């Protein structure tokens, strides 16, 4: 068989490392050590040995086997430096056709365009419906929460809350009674030490107790932290800060809107209830 | 060759005619430089990721349904947990070797992305992106994008408290798309977050779609490197435009790669023994309405997180039709701008200097003022943004108020990158002028210039120009 002359190695320099007994021993020892490590791994792992034992054995085995391979190659082969011709594009072929079968004449260029255009439309037509099936239409989902007139505020455990359940300066994480765990409806309940002022809606404050949406208006994290020293609600994600005694307006950080205030009232048994859904957009901006 | 191997080879060769191609491959010459190993490190971490990932997939349950944990980890015994989190606990504490393989998988994912980023830096700094390798460069940009997606979806799968926060923010980012945000977010999440579809979908992306795309793209990437041949650093006395100098695949490059893959796997395993990363048991499961105090994404998302933190409050509506918000500008437009700038840079350089022809010899970025300025500008920007993602930690460590830390980053992120970029651009221009040189327009021109500087410096070529094999 005739070999492709281009495939031949053009050697520039060639050095032959001297054979070394020491090197041979290193190969044997490291390869043997790797096998030993594999053995430890194979015994220790299924028997429920400690992770550092079988992990360490696996690690050491891989490292040793790496050394064995490296060493095996060091004096077994000559060290070759070679040069290879870069393939320079052949200008002779520059305007050869891609295939030798050509279309009949230049007629029907309209047909070609019609075919391409309908191909694209056909593609979109069959790809779009499955994508649309992937999720429900948003409709008003993002405009509403589970709060309705008369829905009780409950804790994580589902217990209703009275204003006095909160200590002065206290804070609680609250859900609508029938939608515990539905993030969009989560609420922070605070009992402020001083009466809130505008823009807080004072009609929705009961005994210094206010409720704000817990969903950050920046990117939707729960505004989970309350810094008592400066009476600020704090979002741990990007450090937006809100002032709960002034309608939870943002005072620092990237959030641009106040946390919406929940219209708050009492039912006839003295439990806190919502008077209505939030009157402002909850959570981050959308479309 | 051992008799068994040669028998096997001869059997196949008789049918497939392998001798010619295999010789061609074995004789392929690889230029030698440590920075060329970065791509290989990325490649081998991908191998480790796939191997460990298959093992993890045997146990992971892609569901958020409440499940009772009955395993050996005491803290959670009898607790109701999301199935995904529960299966990760079982995998970690009740499957022999599970925790080790999970940690190796995480470690390899960090290494994969880090090595890809450094590999991209070397491509950009040395000019390996120039014609004819623009296609491969853009394929690389696609690869790094998918590497990020793989990293993010993987980070989400355990459904721990950090994962929950990451998913929430990703959801809000999708919502923030003007006009179509709510639809796109609902398509991807199957409704308003949290839905039962998120985790199953992220799972399909993480174990099937994204790795499939990455493997296909890496194969094409490597095929293009083989087809177009590797670039190389200038070697005195060798016309790098026509020839590659290096060591053949067999045995030198093979030995090196085999050692590299074993050492990498060994070091990743050692790291997994010593570093308890990915121990999500301590983070706790995702709980609706709750978030931990240290809400930090993985390091490769820091720059986006930092941008979200320092971007000033912004939200306005355009004719009541669409809304433009901070999360959109900082979390989507800005990264989009960085990626577009990276994708467009090869064309910018070619236009700016009127470059002609193909380029195979790598250059020092200081020889190309535009490149020096662009690189320092854009990467200092990305690094400063990443640093801004640690604003809360910095504030706690230094005692400076969080407000002042954020203002520091707001100012430096806007001012420093352009200043640094301009400064190094000026320096590079002066450096060229000092040697009365200009940016070469073609590789031949560059080589003539390099040869004349060598003569001017009075240095003799170390290796006399070997007429290598009197090549055609
Ligand atoms: C994500 C995984 C990636 C893998 C596994 C990968 C792998 C490799 C490998 C093994 C090589 C040959 C060795 C080397 O030059 O380092 C290579 C070359 C190359 N890569 Fe990547 N790469 C990845 C991402 C990227 C990225 C992000 C870019 C740039 C945006 C890129 C652009 C290139 C280019 C232009 C070459 C040719 C370099 C030359 O000939 O000097 N790659 N890649
Ligand atoms: S989500 Fe609250 S500050 Fe970003």
CATH fold call of the largest domain in chain A: Rieske Iron-sulfur Protein
Number of helices of chain B: 16
- CA-atom Rg of chain B in angstroms: 26 Å
Main sheet makeup of chain B? 2 strands, antiparallel
Q: What Rg of chain A is obtained from the alpha carbons, in whole angstroms?
A: 37 Å
**Main pleated sheet of chain A:** 4 strands, antiparallel
Fourth-level CATH superfamily of the largest domain in chain A: Rieske [2Fe-2S] iron-sulphur domain
How would you spell out the order of helices and strands of chain B? Answer: HHEHEEHHHHHHEHHEEHHHHH
Q: Please report the number of helical segments of chain A.
A: 3
What topology, given as strand order, has the largest sheet of chain A? 3-4-5-6
Helical/strand content category of chain A: alpha+beta
What does this protein structure show overall?
The complex is a heterodimer of chains A (287) and B (472). Chain A has 287 residues and is an alpha+beta fold. Helix content of chain A is 25%, strand content 17%. Chain A has 2 domains: 5-133; 142-274, Rieske [2Fe-2S] iron-sulphur domain (Rieske Iron-sulfur Protein, 3-layer Sandwich). Chain A has 3 helices and 12 strands. In chain A, α1 (21-44) runs antiparallel to α2. The relative contact order of chain A is 0.09. In chain B, α5 packs antiparallel against α6 (134-156), α7 (161-175) packs antiparallel against α8 (181-189) and α14 (391-398) packs across α15. Chain B has a domain at 315-460. Chain B has 16 helices and 6 strands. Mean pLDDT of chain B is 93; it is low at 460-472. Chains A and B meet through α2 and β2 of A and α2, α7, α8, β4 and α10 of B. Bound molecules: protoporphyrin IX containing FE and FE2/S2 (inorganic) cluster.
């Amino acid at each position: 068989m005739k070999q492709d002359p281009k495939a031949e190695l053009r050697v520039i320099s060639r050095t032959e490392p001297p054979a070394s007994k020491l090197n041979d021993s290193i190969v044997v020892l490291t390869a043997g050590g790797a096998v030993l490590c594999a053995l430890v791994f194979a015994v220790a792992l299924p028997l429920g040995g400690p992770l550092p034992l079988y992990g360490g054995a696996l690690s050491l085995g891989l490292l040793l086997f790496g050394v064995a391979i490296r060493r095996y190659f060091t004096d077994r082969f000559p060290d070759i430096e070679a040069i290879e011709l870069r393939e320079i594009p052949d200008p002779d072929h520059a305007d050869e056709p891609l295939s030798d079968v050509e279309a009949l004449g230049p007629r029907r260029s309209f047909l070609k365009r019609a075919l391409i255009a309908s191909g694209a439309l056909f593609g979109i037509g069959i790809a779009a419906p499955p994508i649309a099936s992937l999720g429900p239409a948003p409709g008003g989902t993002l405009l509403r929460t589970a709060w309705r007139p008369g829905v009780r505020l409950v804790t994580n455990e589902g217990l209703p809350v009275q204003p006095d359940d909160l200590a002065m300066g206290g804070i609680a994480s609250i859900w609508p009674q029938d939608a515990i765990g539905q993030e969009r409806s989560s609420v922070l309940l605070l009992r402020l030490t001083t009466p809130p002022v505008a823009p807080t809606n004072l009609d929705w404050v009961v005994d210094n107790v206010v409720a704000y949406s817990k969903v950050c208006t920046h990117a939707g994290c729960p505004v989970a932290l309350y810094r008592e020293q400066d009476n600020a609600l704090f979002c741990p994600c990007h450090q937006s800060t809100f002032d709960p005694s002034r309608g939870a307006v943002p005072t620092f950080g990237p959030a641009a809107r106040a946390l919406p205030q929940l219209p708050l009232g009492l039912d006839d048994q003295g439990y806190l209830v919502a008077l209505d859904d939030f009157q402002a957009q909850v959570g981050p901006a959308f479309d | 060759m051992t008799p068994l191997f040669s028998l096997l080879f001869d059997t196949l060769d008789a049918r497939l005619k392998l001798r010619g191609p295999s010789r061609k491959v074995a004789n392929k010459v690889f230029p030698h430089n440590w920075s060329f190993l970065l791509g290989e490190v990325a490649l081998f971490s991908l191998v480790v990721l796939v191997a460990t990932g298959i093992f993890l997939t045997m146990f992971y349950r892609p569901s958020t349904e409440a499940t009772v944990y009955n395993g050996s980890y005491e803290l959670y015994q009898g607790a109701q947990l999301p199935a995904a989190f529960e299966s990760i606990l079982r995998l970690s504490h009740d499957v022999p070797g599970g925790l080790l393989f999970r940690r190796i998988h995480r470690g390899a994912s960090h290494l994969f992305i880090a090595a890809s980023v450094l590999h991209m830096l070397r491509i950009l700094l040395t000019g390996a992106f120039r014609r004819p390798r623009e296609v491969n460069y853009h394929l690389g940009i696609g690869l790094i994008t998918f590497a990020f997606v793989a990293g993010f979806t993987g980070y989400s799968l355990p459904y721990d408290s950090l994962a929950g926060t990451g998913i929430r923010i990703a959801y809000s980012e999708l919502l923030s798309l003007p006009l179509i945000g709510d639809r796109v977010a609902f398509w991807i999440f199957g409704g308003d977050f949290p839905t039962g579809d998120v985790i199953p979908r992220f799972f399909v992306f993480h174990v099937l779609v994204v790795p499939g795309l990455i493997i296909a793209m890496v194969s094409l990437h490597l095929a293009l490197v083989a087809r177009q041949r590797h670039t190389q650093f200038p070697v005195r006395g060798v016309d790098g435009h026509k020839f590659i100098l290096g060591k053949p695949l067999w045995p030198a490059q093979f030995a090196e790669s085999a050692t590299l893959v074993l050492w990498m796997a060994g070091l990743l395993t050692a790291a997994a023994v010593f570093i308890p990363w990915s121990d999500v048991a301590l983070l706790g499961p995702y709980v609706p309405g709750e978030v931990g105090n240290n809400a930090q994404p993985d390091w490769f998302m820091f720059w986006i997180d930092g941008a979200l933190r320092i971007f000033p409050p912004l939200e306005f509506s355009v004719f009541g039709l669409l809304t433009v918000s901070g999360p959109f500008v900082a979390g989507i437009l800005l990264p989009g701008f960085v990626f577009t700038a990276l994708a467009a840079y090869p064309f910018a350089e070619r236009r700016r200097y009127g470059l002609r022809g193909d380029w195979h010899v790598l250059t020092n970025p200081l020889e190309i003022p535009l490149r020096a300025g662009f690189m320092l500008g854009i990467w200092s920007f990305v690094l400063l943004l990443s640093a801004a993602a640690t604003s809360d930690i910095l504030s706690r460590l230094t005692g400076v108020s969080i407000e002042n830390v954020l203002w520091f980053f707001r100012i430096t992120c806007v001012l420093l990158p352009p200043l640094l970029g301009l400064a190094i651009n000026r320096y590079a221009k002066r450096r060229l002028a000092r040697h009365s040189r200009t940016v070469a327009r073609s590789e031949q021109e560059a080589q003539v210039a390099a040869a004349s500087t060598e003569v001017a410096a009075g240095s003799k070529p170390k290796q006399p120009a070997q007429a290598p094999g009197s090549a055609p």
